[in-house]
Amino acid sequence: MLNVLTVPAFSDNYLWIIHDGVNAAVVDPGDATPILDALNKHKLSLIAILLTHHHSDHVGGVARLLQHYDVPVYAPRKDPIAHVTQPLDEGDTVSIAALDLKLSVLDVPGHTLGHIAYVAKEQGWLFCGDTLFAGGCGRLFEGTPAQMLASLEKLAALPDDTKIYCAHEYTIANLRFAMAAEPGNDTLAARYKTEQAKREQGLPTVPSSIGLEKSTNPFLRARLPAIARQLMAEGRLDKQDPVAVFAALREWKNGFR
Ligand code: ZN
Ligand code: FE
């Protein structure tokens, strides 16, 4: 029986530890210290490192973890990352025998060009780094709006009950923007209240689920007329094509306070 531990780091990152009570794999260890602490506290032995993209808040702890544990490092082939032993592309499967864990790899370019996501089909888990967030999506540092839209739609095609383990707690700010983009969405307004209550108690809003994101995340709703209408009302859109809608949404969010 596998579990996922939430390890907060920096100001708003989540690092993830997948474990069976004995062995553990870590996803996106941007900082080694909280990972080593969690491994010690739960008496876990690290057997694999999994990376989604090259940003330092996701890979910064790898070198120090490798000083303590000689383990394979799985990472996207197309992102520049040190210490990688197992470069991955879409269609690859990561098999971690000691955990009886299989992860399939999806290419999800946009935030970075090489960004990948890991799907544990049997468990219904998605580890998607900075691609899909609860209520939002990652910034386009390297890719185009068309690439990011295609990446998000690939993730949205996963089963609705798939749990989304994204890498940041950005949910409240994301949902504030979502409500501006789609003011008539009652499910979204209700979600905002639920997530706010969690944050007031110091609880994470992550993992989210694909079903919840499809009903409330504007970046997964770029094909809906309501979103295009709102963008037009804001004077941010002049043609109704999904990539233009997505690009206008992302632009608006970049400057939204
Ligand atoms: Zn990033
Ligand atoms: Fe990040």
CATH class: Alpha Beta
Main beta sheet: strand number and arrangement? 6 strands, mixed
Please name the CATH architecture: 4-Layer Sandwich
What share of residues are in beta strands?
15-25%
Name the CATH homologous superfamily.
Answer: Ribonuclease Z/Hydroxyacylglutathione hydrolase-like
**What is the tally of beta strands?**
14
User: Structural class, from helix and strand content?
Assistant: alpha/beta
Work out the helicity level: 25-40%
What is the CATH topology descriptor?
A: Metallo-beta-lactamase, Chain A
Bound molecules: zinc ion, fe (iii) ion
Our measurement of the CA-to-CA distance between the termini, rounded to an integer number of angstroms, reads 42 Å
Q: Give the SSE order as H and E letters.
A: EEEHEHHEEEEEEEEHEHHEHHH
What does this protein look like?
The model has no long low-confidence stretch (mean pLDDT 98). The protein is 34% helix and 25% strand. It has 257 residues and is an alpha/beta fold. The relative contact order is 0.11. The site of zinc ion has 5 residues, from loops.
What tags apply to this protein structure?
single chain, about 260 residues, alpha/beta, Metallo-beta-lactamase, Chain A, 6-stranded mixed beta sheet, 9 helices, about 35% helix, about 25% strand, globular, binds zinc ion, binds fe (iii) ion
Question: What order do the helices and strands come in, and which of them pair?
Answer:
Blueprint: E1 3-9, E2 13-19, E3 23-27, H1 32-41, E4 45-50, H2 56-59, H3 62-68, E5 73-76, E6 86-88, E7 93-96, E8 101-107, E9 116-120, E10 125-129, E11 132-133, E12 136-137, H4 145-156, E13 163-166, H5 171-181, H6 186-200, E14 208-209, H7 210-216, H8 225-233, H9 242-254
Parallel strand pairs: 3-4, 4-5, 5-6, 10-13
Antiparallel strand pairs: 1-2, 2-3, 7-8, 8-9, 9-10, 11-12, 13-14
Bound molecules: zinc ion and fe (iii) ion.
Residues 53, 55, 58, 111, 130 line the site of zinc ion.
